[in-house]
Amino acid sequence: MKSTRPIVFDTRIDDIPVRVLSELYLAMLRIQKVELKIDDLYHEDEMKTPVHLCLGEEAIAAGVCLNLGIEDYVFTNHRGHGHYIAKGGDVKAMVAELYNRETGCSRGRGGSMHLVDTSVGLLGSSSIVGGGVPIATGAALASSLKKDRRVSVSFFGDAAVEEGVIYESINFALLKKLPIIYVCENNLYSVYSPLSKRQPHNEIYRRFTGIGIPSYHADGNNVIEVYRTAKEAITRARAGGGPSFIECRTYRLKDHHGTGTGVEVGYRTQQEVAEWAERCPVKNYESFLLERKLLTSGEVERLNTYVNLEVEEAFQFARTSPFPKEDNVTDYLFQ
Amino acid sequence: MDWSKTLVKEEIDFTAGESGRKLSYAAAIREALELALTSDERVFIMGQGVDDPAGMFSITTDLHKKYGEERVFDTPLSENALTGVAIGAALAGMRPIYMHNRPDFLLLAMDQIVNHAAKWSYMFGGCIGVPLVIWACVGRGWGGAAQHTQTLQGLFMHVPGLRLVMPTTPYDAKGLLISSIADNNPVIILEHRWLFRQSGHVPEGLYSIPFGRGVVRRLGKDITIVAISYMVVEALNAAQELEKQGIDAEVIDPRTLKPLDEALILDSVRKTGRLIVADTGWKTGGAGAEIATMVAEKGFDYLKAPIKRVASLDIPTPASDILEAKFYVGKADIIAACTALLEKRSGNGKG
Ligand SMILES: Cc1ncc(C[n+]2csc(CCOP(=O)(O)OP(=O)(O)O)c2C)c(N)n1
Ligand SMILES: [Mg+2]
Predict the structure, then answer these.
(1) Do B180 and B318 fall within a single domain?
(2) Of A20, A74, A209, B317, which is the most exposed, with the fewest CB atoms less than 10 Å away?
């Protein structure tokens, strides 16, 4: 018996402009293709950085970030490629960072887990689980003090809700009615530990309902559902209605880090991975768009070609960029 | 079992670990855990992933099957709370071992470690202690970067009430872990991932190594290198090179930083008159600073040259391999420091 359900896209989507529908597709495609390219080239050992791929989780980054403007803030974690790309981070600079180049978004100092692009509201990321959550809350505090109508989004995994700092942050955000959305990407694992070994029940959002924050859950592989849920939360936050919590149930198709599937490690089965691969958020959404004639196959092809080129360019840029100079090793400790 | 029995041995056998059966570093640690689990019901192991198929660098793989899921269990990522939980269990009679794959995550638990575990015995006039082992393994390389490679011995060394153990050989890793479990106080063990490449002679059965007893890893007469953790490997390699240049370096492995084997270090400096401290951590305010100061205070008269520290740059670890190479110190830096100090020897002679 299958443990997964098919993705059920809403039949009524008239409220979402067609432009947005195709942008959602484009954003996911971008994330997927960058990740696949990393997956493909990682074995060359030229990206000397531990990569945590988000293949299978593309819909969350895309669905949430397409509700944001360039001025809004996003804080992410060790699995942050998708959030960075969906928020409009410079893909070339991200790939260059993976290749440890001076042109990387963190000038080769940070690597895959420390992405930044301040020009689009990506103020940094933490690879300490839960570490970015209070920081995102602080950015929301700044917005609330400055009344600049910006919204902050904090992305984190299911293991992050095991850290006390999450509850402390949300308490404060509620207290101050801060414009922040806490997005929990529940991919059912923390490294090799399944959720059931770490938490007493698996509907994370219910726990947060209990502490008074409006809490939602969405199928994290259904980009429309994520988009709609995030829209409601973000609209309320922007209007001064305070924080929300969204749990997106999903699955990472790759191993915790690197390019395996995890089956070889032995903590999950081939069948489980295969079932979730069928729920690929990108492929399913593409079929949906085609079936509903929202995109033609020609348009899909053009978008794919376009993104392929973009990805090629980014890798080309990264691989031909200069390395940092060892004499500059102590630069940037202070501003 | 009576742990104190394994602890009382005052005589140190300096040839220990030089013959007999060989084990990998990980296997040596595993054996210590198994012996403790077998011989003492109070011992239990907790930590992120200790019962997963990879088992904490393979140290703990399948221990939960053998000793039960109640005694070897995975933890939620709640480092501070679970350190407190471990402290509470220790107060109530258990002997917890809390394992982390990186010391960086201990920073989340600093409140429980520093404000609580380290103070409990003193704060309550010795009425009750915290027999707790916190184990973590320093990462290095492959762009591990700023938050997954920190060597925090300097921070822990600063805190009264903690023991701080940094083994370098499979023999020591096993023996010191047993001593740590047997001890009635909070012990921080910081391993180094690169030491796991080694294997070495490890006796079977329970044995312990007293805290505060270092070993001379290489005898020499010209200069003393006190090397911490993985730096012992680098220092021994440096000593080999130095020998070709006619410099005879003595390499000391303190094994525990707190307590520190001051006598061993001072005796060596008395003989050589020169000291280099090679540390895996940052230079400023680090373990090397403490050791250097100790010698300056207690062995100033022995010194024929200023003390030198070989330590990481005072910056977060960069991701780029080129910058990493600059950030980390090793054999070449130790050699350079030694030759710089010994050049002073000829200078002094002439003057
Ligand atoms: C405080 C802390 N503890 C442990 C780790 C080691 N670690 C890195 S990623 C990770 C798993 C996190 O799982 P989750 O939050 O569900 O995110 P996912 O990797 O599944 O996206 C762990 C345990 C860490 N980085 N930080
Ligand atoms: Mg997870």
Answers:
(1) no
(2) A209
Q: Do A130 and B77 touch (CB under 8 A)?
A: yes
Phi, psi of A17 (to 5 degrees): -60, 145
Give the pLDDT confidence score for residue B122 in this predicted structure: 94
B347 pLDDT tier (thresholds 50, 70, 90): low
* Ligand 1 neighbour A112 (Cβ under 6 A): no
Tell me whether residues A324 and B76 touch, CB distance under 8 A.
no
Instruction: Report which of B196, B192, B193, B232 is spatially closest to residue B214, judged by C-alpha positions.
Output: B232
User: Which pLDDT value is given to residue B3?
Assistant: 55
Expressed as residue numbers, the domain containing B276 is 215-342
Dig out the tokens for B58 from the structure: 């393979």
* Domain end position, chosen among B177, B208, B239: B208
Q: Which residue bears the tokens 């198994």?
A: B34
B351 is a domain residue? no
Q: CB neighbours (10 Å) of residue A90?
A: 21
Phi first, then psi: give them for residue A192, nearest 5 degrees: -105, 10
Q: Is B277 helix (H, G, I), strand (E, B) or coil?
A: strand
CA distance A87 to A27: 9
Q: Is the CB of A57 under 6 A from ligand 1?
A: no
Assign B344 a pLDDT band (cuts: 50, 70, 90).
low
Task: Inform me whether the pLDDT recorded for B9 exceeds 60.
Answer: no
Instruction: Give the residues of chain A that fall short of pLDDT 70.
Output: 1
CATH code of domain A18-319: 3.40.50.970
In a domain, B160, yes or no: yes
Q: Which of A100, A163, A328 lies at the smallest CB-CB distance from B77?
A: A163
Retrieve residue A166's tokens: 């999450």
Q: Are residues B58 and B185 in the same domain?
A: yes
Judged by a CB distance cut-off of 8 A, whether residue A126 touches chain B is yes
ipTM above 0.90, yes or no: no
Q: Token digits for B45?
A: 């192991």
B70, B77, B314: best mutation site toward chain A, by most A Cβ within 10 Å? B77
Q: Which of A50, A164, A323 sits opposite B320 (nearest CB)?
A: A323
Domain boundary among B208, B240, B256: B208
Pocket of ligand 1 contains residue A132 by CB under 6 Å: no
Residues in B closer than 8 angstroms to A166, CB to CB, are: none
The tokens describing A20, both together, are 């947005």
User: How much is the pTM?
Assistant: 0.92
Asked if A56 and A82 touch (Cβ cutoff 8 Å), the reply is: no
Q: Locate the domains of chain A by residue range.
A: 18-319
Per-residue pLDDT at B19: 82
B181 and B69: one domain?
A: yes
> Does A265 contact chain B (CB < 8 Å)?
yes
Has residue B350 been placed in a domain? no
- Rounded distance, CA B93 to CA B44, Å? 11
Provide mean pLDDT across the span B335-350.
76
What percentage of residues in chain B have a pLDDT greater than 90?
Answer: 90
- Regarding the beta carbon of A154 and ligand 1, being less than 6 Å apart is answered no
Q: What is the pLDDT of residue B350?
A: 40
Nearest-by-Cβ selection for B326 from A190, A193, A326: A326
Name the closest residue on chain B to residue A333, using Cα atoms. B315
**Considering just the CA atoms, what is the radius of gyration of chain B in Å?**
20
Say whether A128 and B318 touch across the interface (CB within 8 A).
no
**Cα–Cα distances in angstroms (integers) from residue B347 to residues A176, A204, B236, B250, B337, in the given order:** 68, 70, 26, 22, 16
Looking at residue B349, its pLDDT comes to: 42
Domain count, chain B: 2
pLDDT in tens, A129-180: 999 999 999 999 999 999 999 999 999 999 999 999 999 999 999 999 999 9
